[in-house]
Design a protein that fits this description.
The protein is an all-beta fold. The chain contains no helices and seven strands. Strand 6 and strand 7 form a beta hairpin.
């Protein structure tokens, strides 16, 4: 173990973005936590998704993070695609 960091209680996926030295953690409470791997894993930002959206996939070849967002009420299920900056 190299480091231990607290992010969220309800996460399924964590991905490392080697081009930016970041970690992306999809949190079921409705956001993706972005951690800076260079500065000791500090959380640098949060990107809003929807409650329950904890399944994701980062494809480095496409430079995209795909997040599965569940249907809630009248809001349909969807896959959100994020382009890291």
């Amino acid at each position: 173990m190299l480091s231990k960091v607290s992010t969220c209680d309800d996460s399924d996926d964590l991905f490392y973005d080697g081009a930016r030295n970041r970690l992306y953690v999809s949190c079921g409470d409705g956001h993706v936590a972005v951690l800076d791997a260079v500065s000791g894993m500090s959380e640098t930002s949060r990107v809003a998704t929807r409650k329950g959206a904890r399944t994701s996939l980062f494809v480095s070849a496409l430079d995209r993070l795909f997040v599965a967002v569940p249907a809630i009420g009248d809001q349909p299920a969807e896959v959100r695609v994020f382009a890291p900056q």
